[in-house]
């Protein structure tokens, strides 16, 4: 409650900004156990995914081991990125 009261509506940033912090409940997962279970057997935990993209746990500011999967994690699907859409004119120079 103290965290919520302090940060909801916070706007005392070190740099000038019109941004206002809002605090809200996480959904659909709430709490540490729910989030650990969400990622436990997720494709993001597959061996081919670099460590910097995986969830981490901290205890007293020190990184601790994330629980191991309860089943084999399948490899993540790789999304194909679309090429940027550029306007294609008739080739005539416009000045």
Key terms:
single chain; 2 helices; extended; about 100 residues; about 5% strand; 2 strands; two-stranded antiparallel ribbon; alpha+beta
Summarize it:
The protein has helices spanning 2-7, 32-40, and strands at residues 57-59, 62-64. With 95 residues, the chain is α+β, with helices and mostly antiparallel strands.
Question: Could you give the topology of this structure?
Answer:
Elements: H1 2-7, H2 32-40, E1 57-59, E2 62-64
Antiparallel strand pairs: 1-2
Biggest sheet record = 2 strands, antiparallel
The coarse overall form would be: extended
Helix fraction, binned, reads 10-25%
Estimate the mean pLDDT confidence.
Answer: 84
Q: Count the helices. How many? A: 2
Main sheet: which strands, in order across? Answer: 1-2
Number of strands: 2
What is the straight-line distance between the termini?
Answer: 61 Å
> Secondary-structure element order, as H and E?
HHEE
Structural class computed from helices and strand pairing:
alpha+beta
Radius of gyration: 22 Å
Beta-strand residue fraction: 5-15%
Which ranges are low-confidence, i.e. pLDDT below 50, for 5 or more consecutive residues? none
If you had to describe this structure to a student in words, what would you say it looks like?
The protein is of the alpha+beta class. 16% of the residues lie in helices and 6% in strands. It contains 2 helices and 2 strands, in the order ααββ. Strands 1-2 form a two-stranded antiparallel ribbon. The radius of gyration is 22 Å and the shape is extended.
């Amino acid at each position: 409650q103290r965290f919520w009261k302090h940060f909801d509506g916070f706007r005392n940033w070190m740099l000038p900004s019109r941004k206002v912090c809002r605090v809200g409940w996480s959904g659909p997962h709430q709490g540490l156990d729910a989030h650990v279970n969400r990622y436990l057997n997720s494709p993001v935990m597959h061996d081919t995914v670099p460590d910097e993209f995986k969830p981490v746990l901290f205890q007293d500011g020190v990184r601790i081991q994330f629980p191991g999967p309860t089943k084999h994690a399948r490899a993540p699907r790789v999304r194909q990125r679309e090429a940027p859409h550029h306007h294609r004119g008739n080739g005539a120079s416009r000045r």
